Amino acid sequence: MTRPTGIWRSLDEIAKNDEYRRFAEREFPALEAASSSRRDFMKLVGASLAAAGLISCRRDDTRILPYGEQPPEVVPGQPLYYASTFVLGGRAIGVLAETHVGRPIKLEGNPEHPASRGKLGALAQAAVLDLYDPDRSRHLTHKGELADWEQDFLPFWKAQREALRTANGGAGLAILSGRNASPAVEMLRDEIRNGLPQAKFYEYEPLELSDAGFDADYDLSKAEVIVSLDHDFLGVDEQSIRHTRDFSNRRGGEAGGEMNRLYVVEPHLTVTGSAADHRLSWRAGAVREVAAGLAALTGAFEGQVSNAFLKAAAEDLLAAGSRGVVLAGRRQSAQTHAFARAINERLKSRCVRYSGRDPKVGDIGALAAQLETGKIETLLMLGVNPVYDAPADLDFRGLLGKAGESIHLGLYRDETGQATTWHIPQAHWLESWGDARDGSVVSPIQPMIDPILGGRSELELLGLLAGRLTHDEYMQLDNPGNQPVGSAEPYEVVRERFTAFAKSSRDLGGQWRKYLNTGIAFAAAEERPAPPAPTPTRGEADDDSWEVCFAGSASTWDGRFANNGWLQETPDPITKLVWDNAVLIGPADARELRVKTGDVVRITVDGRSVDLPVFLVPGAAKHSVQVALGYGRKESGALGRHAGANAYKIRTSKAPGIATGAKIAKTGDHRPLASTQQHWTIEANEVIEGAMKDRAIVRTGTKAHFDEHPEFAKHMGLHGPVLQDSSPRPEFTGEYQWGMAIDLNRCTGCNACAVACQAENNIPIVGKDEVIQGREMAWIRIDRFFEGDPEGDVTVTHQPMLCQHCENAPCEIVCPVNATVHNEEGLNVMAYNRCVGTRYCANNCPYKVRRFNYYDYNKETLRSSETDFDGDPMPNPFAKGLSQPQAMQGPLDDLMRLQKNPDVTVRMRGVMEKCTFCTQRIQAAKIAEKTAAGQSKPERIADGELQTACQQSCPADAIVFGDIADSRTRVAKAREHQRGYHVLDHLNTRPRVTYLARIRNPNPALEGEGA
Amino acid sequence: MSDSAAPTAGVSLADAQAREPLVPDGVTYHDVTRKVCGMLDRKPPRWWLPAFLFFAAIAGMGMILIGYQIATGVGVWGLNNPVSWAWDITNFVFWVGIGHAGTLISAILLLLRQKWRMSINRAAEAMTIFAVVCAGIFPMIHVGRIWCVHFLAPFPNHVGIWPNFKSPLLWDVFAISTYAIVSILFWYVGLIPDIATLRDRAKTKKMQIIYGLFALGWRGGNRAWQHYDKACLLLAGLATPLVLSVHTVVSFDFATSVIPGWHTTIFPPYFVAGAIFSGFAMVLTLLIPVRKLYKLESVITIRHLENMAKVILATSCMVGLAYGTEFFVAWYSKNPYEAFVFFQSRMQGPYAWAYWTMIFCNVVVPQTLWSKTMRRSPWLLFVIAGLVNVGMWFERFVIIVTSLANDLLPGSWGYFSPTWVDILTFVGTFGIFGALYLVFLRFLPVVPMNEVKHLLPSTAVTPEEEGTAAGDSDDLIIPDAVRESRNVAGMVAEFADEGALKSGAVALRDQGYERWDAHSPFPVHGMDKAMGIRRSTLGRWTLAGAVLGFWTAVLLTYFPSVQFYPLIVAGKPYNGWVAFIPIYFELTVLFAAFGTVGGMFRLSRLNDWYHPTLKNDRFLRVTDDRFMIAVDERDPKFDVKRTAVLLREAGGRRVTLLEP
Question: What percent of chain B has a predicted confidence (pLDDT) above 90?
Fold first, then answer.
């Protein structure tokens, strides 16, 4: 607990008091006393509120600087935005953190940052919740016992460094981390290599499912023809935000305009597959053959191919030339990557850049080999969890025993943290300093709040290992700035690194401030030319055995977000599954195995097996199943423990992406799966087809049709007489008339809007059991509609559905207590205080977007099954002790409460809620105009200045919000757009949300081959 | 009492006189009293207490579950996002439907002069009230925040907003509460003469006071009967449109919505027919065992059962027609949403089992009632009525749940399955209903005695009693109290039957007496003329109530909606008076009913709980089987000797002075 500034000093003094220290370590004692008397409870609530207050003033405002030009004062009720960086799989995504009196409550994209451009995906949106996860690790442990940083770890660490240095130059030291994006880490690595030349660095990303030997950076902003070979670049991908933006920007939208074309070859439907103009269900193991065929047709390889799909795609690619690109999937073999690279090089594609990797860094296989020799004395693992996610054949847990000392730095005392000799709680990235690089752009990671549960950063550990001093030691030096030894304090490290790439030495302070203010700086990246690709060969033909495709999860990524309730409850874009992974299987294969959705099967690969329920999906390749990784966590905290089964158990280093020759057998068990879009199951698809046929809820057309009939969307659906209001309606007298437009042509179904809405509007999670009941609370849901033969190629359309703010709102007329009425600006407003909860409004809502609080979801325990999937009993949420999961006590845990947006009411049970068009943002924008105007007349809110949370995060820019009364606004134009239509307009509800019809751009050469 | 006579063969429907009598020959007024009151006088039958405890226990379980639900949240039921109403509103509509038969039998059949209703209407009315109690539970507890339910009441509360008078749910509040209140008034007014009988037969002081309190001093005088008869007629007139309106308004909950399967213009008549259908089925379900257990076969005859079976058959056909119409419209409209609901969702969808149960029970089973044998066999009727009850519950379930589960946007479709709380709460309401019904059977006359006596031939006075009366002396009987105090309150004389009473009345009328009354166990036809009194003016009270109610409704809806809180609701005009019509109607009827009952109380001076005649032991038999004339001492013509002679000459016997 030693921090440098005044604020901290006074707390340090308190912290010397033993009792306070114990209290502060536990941080929120109210949690641990849930079952004590009411009197105790009140005392503890008081205490924890006080603690919350302390936390909220812990932000170190002498060090970091707010985004833009605002002064750094904290005005209660006035949010401040700070630039920071979210790093996923070695890729930097610039964010702005919205903080209220020192609490970060929401993340938004940094408009300056090239990866985000003001947009943010679901994972990044949800990252703020992890900060407040009460299950996060709070204690430094040594061999399972509580230990102290200063008294126990620091002496050990220094001694260890000394021992390593003197013995053999650090030969026994191995450092494992995720894919590095931080220039500061690079600097420290070099420093470590200086002192300990034999030290070895290793990097491991579980979702890098195969190794092509080189990296590919795609730039789709210029791509006209895109062929994805099993690459879900719009879905589970570190750069999906950038790709979605670039892809959607070229989707056209005006009749007669230009439009890119996407071919997708994949074994199972993905977000990318649903965006495709042509999609081919193809076994993952056979994609290499497709790649070879495509290479042959484009002249990059020899061979004869007669497949119409490939011919059409190849011709398109050749026609597009440098504007064509072939993308190879992360689980595809080096061969497929080599073919793709050969084609791209042949096309001289401007849409891809190949690069090599840091040759001084090893992979997990190399580390395993080193560990096997027993020569590793010290293994430092930074923010990774290889015991859970390393290939199963490596037996990483066993290997750990062969290392002398193993040190784990992690947000959770997870599977790895429990197996190592040392576990150090890691500070969340919103609590620590750092930096990250994206090409030539470097962005800072700024702490928004002091570590709530304690915790150290990666930089600090590495800095100490590099021989730097702790902050206290550093401050005790005379004239510290001129000493040869630096401080290991992350802030100093980051600043030092920044100084190194600063443009000039003039006004370093100003440059630094600008860096922090804007969140970006430019620094030439070290070019690492790509090694030559292996010579592509056709390889053996794929057999017909069962293949298991491993995929990252849209919710948990590789498992690291397993304890994030928002993400667990975010429906998978395709299956709409929540809180679970499953074996995705096509209907024909399911018939062959005689399984139905929910039946548990045992998948055996090379003698390793895992039990998982099956889930039927259309558009799956024959004898191919897909399993999402990142579930079945044991030591993730209470929420992740419930979710799914661990597919890493059957993933080996031999077949990290696709395992063939698998055995799938029915076990006879059944596990209920929670899917937010149940329908009548896929078996009854004909009924759905019949139901969908004439409804024209999603309106789609081909580009050719659109060019010919630009207003085709307006002529779909029911056509009765145009309904007139029989009596004069009250007029909307407001200065603004709010409306929204959603372009289905741009939407990919990525869920960014849904999570942004959840964060912005304090939407609770309800747990798996409640989702099975059908009680999810999402204000914006993404309806996913299949078209076509479920056993063949299907097309998918995503339709975000939220309150339509109907001018003739059917919900309002039926409310007996006027709890939902219109305001003068055309918003359908909810008065929560007035609501008695008859639910009549929800019944009469044709769009079914109203959400009812059946329980006090914000207060109560999550309702969930008694055992996790492996049959292990749930940890007792009331038991006390080390690293006890506590999220089960309810999401509105005292800690979680800190995340709540203070501008939005937290709803109680028995109350109906729904999308408000972010009415709090509307009010804030109006107030801002008034404040700015002072005594004079306020300016009108400019178009685009006010964004709803969903709009703001949408990477595809599919959502537009604004004043429809002003014909110059984007939304007003969208309402008049040729593709514009209203869902269920025959009911005369007069929605304020306009949808723009989706256009597909199939290759005319493939007409009739299925879209 | 012997069992009912064997059915008369070959009864012609056209020949009303040739029908078998509703009450068998030879039954006297006193027999009726003895039979009906005997149920209450005697110790309860052996099954009563166990049966009551059984139902009370189920009711208790229901209450506990309601408490659990209120304490925990509506989530204990199986409701979800698309299906926000399921068993709660199904049960509500089911019970409201059941609550139709009672008032219908009393009111509409009274207006149609259907005498066969008389022996069953009391039991049916009680059923109505208890069913409405059960119905009222569900809208109350189904809300998310029951502690805020007073927001629905039309008065300014702390939240400062008035209810939305355009909401069908608010119409429901008005319709159901008006229906409950008017039904209770109607039932109570009908009970007053019978409670007076109970008071006059009471063996203990306690029971006398309790019954006396509710009898409001009823003495069967014609000046009261006159207004009473009128009040019954007026209430029947008011209750008739009310019966039709209640389920019409309930059907508006669905019909005014936009959900396919709900949004249907035929709902009002369809719901009313369904309500009558289920209501009559429930009456049969209750009456057949009661009739057997209490040996009331002579009062509730096979003919009653048969008539009810005919109503069930007719309404079953109406309901079947409504089902067919829905399909026709779904097909004819070419509306894909409608077609989907009726042809796919309901017939083949996930709830097809519920749909076909409904069709079987409501349309197929009642067709057996075309057979006279079926209509006349109580236990078969019992089974059929039970199946109809099941079918009608499923009808509401099918309408509510299938429409919501698979509505307009397939993206939001869901499935509802009930939880144990859903099921047991519903079972609990049967406990409440059964327990209340058993209390009713135990403490109130199941059969309206005064109405049944009205049906008997005028010679039905008990013969042996007549004998003793004839032997009485012609002398004026002077009670000791009068002799001692020399204070007289009036004079009473007994008459043999209705005819004798009438001639007595004519004699007094001709002599110009003013403060007197002719008392009888039931209203005697032509008595007004015999007594020379004007027609009842009660109609004016009713009209005044109606006018007051209408304007109250107009102002109540206009000012909050247009003046105080003009809110933009669904783009409807502020003064959307069309949407206020149900409220105008309900308040008009409610206030008219208040006017009628209040007027009757006032005109009949029913608030006088005590009268000197009640001290006369023989006078107490007026509410059983006697006919008497009482003359008040304050009458200017009153003279002990002359009046006594006049009464005796007019056919009166046992002329007795009344102590004050």
Answer: 36
Does residue A733 belong to the interface with chain B, where contact is any CB pair within 8 Å? no
- Report which of residues B291 and B315 the model is more confident about: B315
CB distance A855–B565 less than 8 Å?
no
Please state the three-class secondary structure of B525-584 as a single string.
CCHHHHHCCCCCCHHHHHHHHHHHHHHHHHHHHHHHHHHHCCCECCCCCCCCHHHHHHHH
Q: What are phi and psi of A100, to 5 degrees?
A: -115, 125
Is B492 within a domain?
no
Beta strands in B76-167 (DSSP E): none
**3-state SS class at A216:** strand
What stretch of H or E contains A743?
strand A738-743
The answer as to whether B559 is a domain residue is: no
Q: Once rounded to an integer, what is the mean pLDDT over residues A639-649? A: 85
Chain A environment of B70 (Cβ under 8 Å): none
List the structure tokens of A148. Answer: 């102290």
Q: With contact defined as beta carbons under 8 Å apart, do A55 and A101 qualify?
A: no
* Set of chain A residues whose Cβ sits within 8 Å of the Cβ of B404: 843
User: Which structure tokens are listed for A891?
Assistant: 């999401």
Which secondary structure element, helix H or strand E, spans residue A663, and what is its range?
A: strand A658-670
User: Pairing mode, if any, of strands A599-605 and A658-670?
Assistant: antiparallel
Can you read off the two tokens belonging to residue B86? 């399921």
Give the E-state strand segments of A746-827 in sequence order.
Answer: 781-788, 794-801, 820-822
User: CB of B563 within 8 Å of any CB in chain A?
Assistant: no
How far are the Cα atoms of A131, A189, A203 from residue A90, in angstroms, in the given order? 20, 16, 10
| CA–CA distances in Å: residue A335 to residues A210, A293, A328, A607, A656 | 10, 13, 10, 26, 15
Give A833's contacts in chain B (Cβ within 8 Å): 159
What CATH number has the domain bearing residue B425? 1.20.1630.10
| Contact at CB, B151 and A817, closer than 8 angstroms | yes
Determine the Cα–Cα distance for residues B620 and B638; give it in Å rounded to an integer.
Answer: 23
Is the pLDDT at A865 greater than 90, yes or no?
A: no
Question: How far, rounded to the nearest angstrom, does the alpha carbon of residue B362 sit from its chain's CA centroid?
Answer: 24
Please answer yes or no on whether B409 and A784 come within 8 Å at the CB atom. no
- Collect all residues of chain A within an 8 Å Cβ-Cβ radius of residue B568: 730, 732, 821-824
Cβ–Cβ gap B411/A725 under 8 Å: no
Closest approach of B178 to chain A, Cα-based (Å): 17
* Confidence (pTM): 0.87
Instruction: Tell me the per-residue pLDDT of B346-366, one tens digit each, with 9 for 90 and over.
Output: 888 888 899 999 999 999 999
Distance CA A117, CA A109 (A): 6
Structure tokens given for B151: 């927001």
The reply to whether B204 falls in a domain is: no
Q: Rounded mean pLDDT of A753-771?
A: 89
B299 in contact with A at a CB cutoff of 8 Å?
A: no
Q: How many domains does chain B have?
A: 1
Radius of gyration of chain A (CA): 28
Percent of chain A topping pLDDT 70:
86
CB B175 within 8 A of CB B244: no
C-alpha distance from B72 to closest chain A C-alpha (Å): 7
Beta-carbon separation of B85 and A987 below 8 A: no
The C-alpha atoms of residue A839 and residue A815 are separated, in whole angstroms, by 8
Of residues A838 and A307, more confidently modeled? A838
Range of the domain at B340: 2-190+223-454
Q: Which residues pair with A700 in a beta bridge?
A: A998
* Among A26, A5, A225, A238, residue whose Cα is nearest residue A121: A238
Edge-to-edge strand order for the sheet containing A103-109? A80-88, A91-100, A103-109
Rounded distance between C-alpha atoms, residue B448 and residue B393, angstroms: 30
Question: How far is residue A119's CA from residue A265's CA, in Å, rounded to a whole number?
Answer: 28
Residue B432 belongs to some domain of the structure: yes
